[in-house]
Description:
Layout: E1 5-9, H1 14-25, E2 29-34, E3 47-50, H2 56-65, E4 70-73, H3 82-103, E5 107-111, H4 122-135, E6 140-146, H5 157-161, E7 166-169, H6 182-191, E8 201-205, H7 214-225, E9 231-234, H8 236-250, H9 254-271, E10 276-278, E11 283-285, H10 297-305
Amino acid sequence: MSAPSLILLGATGTIGRATLSELRAQGHDVTCLVRQGSGEKLPDGVKFLEVDLGDPDAVARCMDTRGGAAVISCMASRTGRPADAWAVDYQANMNVLNAAQAVGCAHFTLLSAICVQKPLLEFQRAKLAFEAALIASGLQWSIVRPTAFFKSLSGQVRRVQAGKPFLVFGDGTLTACTPISDRDLARYLVGCLNVPARMNRILPIGGPGPALTPRAQGEVLFDLLGKKTRFRQVPVTLMDGIIATLSTLGRVNRGMAEKAEFARIGRYYATESMLVWNPTTARYDADVTPAFGEDSLCAHYQRLLFGKAEAGLGDHAMF
């Protein structure tokens, strides 16, 4: 018996590509809804429909043409700009959700983010608004909130390899995470289609192994290179000053306002852990952060250092 057909959103992104690969390996009949002109980024043989996901009528026509038993959305705004976040993380997902309801899709799996636990940024509020709409939709749903991706922790690999110090905010122990690989996260997302314990639930998920602070991540890199550790500490107050300046300039200049938002995003990740927030203890808690998968950040760093993988930072490069 063949696996059911489904719709995949965000298939040209890092996690989306990994999810597409896992779906195909499991025999699913997948159709990807992609932005105009981006279908060529998909592997040969993949079925796709190019559509303006911001146009509800166009989305509805696509879903009528190629409705599936389920939807998996790995779609997210690329920049974190408020307008982009509300257009993509909220409205584009809403357009697909409405169309999915109309054609009788049974299940909607959403790739969200663990940082929405403490929503201080506009893109987090946009994600939460769609989460709420999905929960209220009447469809069976799964909301997956992963911790840090390997990609987001790879920005300093080349820097250290070139003999430069590893940059940390404060002393490098302000935050921690249990990073998860693209492959493991893809396996987890696809599992939401048939694992009852993952249905109608919000699912924080991290990778295997202990939580790592930025300092620990740097130590892993130096150890792999056989070099003495070198850290450069950046005070968080420096970012506060940059944000204040850009915010003031942003009152009269839209470009500066966007830069201020980027700086706020950077500060958030510099000061907030990507772990489950434990309301009982009022702290981030690695012990209650679920773990899944087999891939380690150390092994990922090894592949990057020895040319067996590419970081593919994209918009993560600004962090």
